[in-house]
Each structure stands twice: as C-alpha cells, then as structure tokens.
Amino acid sequence: MIPQLITVRIRRPQGRVIRIWIPVVPVLLLLSPLLILGALVVGLACLMYRVNPLRALATGWRVLWAMSGTRVDVEQGNTALLVNIR
User: Fold this and answer.
1) 83 pairs with which residues across the strands?
2) 2 closest CA partner among 52, 56, 61
3) CA–CA separation, 22 and 70 (whole Å)
4) In the predicted model, is pLDDT for residue 1 greater than 80?
5) Residue 8 in contact with residue 19, Cβ under 8 Å?
C-alpha cells in the first residue's frame, strides 16, 4: 500500500515535543509540476546512462510502495527526530 501519512516528531533540548503530520497525496498534488520536471530529468539520465526508463520507473514505484511502515529514529544529545511513514 502506498504511504498516506508521514508523522514527524521532534524533541527539543528543553523537553518540548513538536509533532507534524504530513498527508502524502495533497503534497504530491502541490508538487506535481516539480515532479514532472524531475521525471524528465530522470528520463534523460536513464537515456544517457543506457538504463531502461520503464524498468527504472517500475523500480521506483516498488520502492515507494515498500516505504509504508518505515520508521526512522535519530537522536543526538538532547534532541531527537522520529519520522514514521504509514
């Protein structure tokens, strides 16, 4: 299943916690012009390095599909960052 929500939690040194919920689909819709430009650049790079663009697209889609359930937790000193992809 494609990810629907990204949750970011930041714990600051003072002990205060900041939570941010990012819905994936509306963000993708807002960034779609940049995504189209990025797809063109990736397509040109695929042609330049002689990689099958359809296979690269399929591989990218599979990586995006597999990201659901990913959890990244980074802690340094008193500051912590947690990214949870649902």
Assistant:
1) 8, 72
2) 61
3) 15
4) no
5) yes
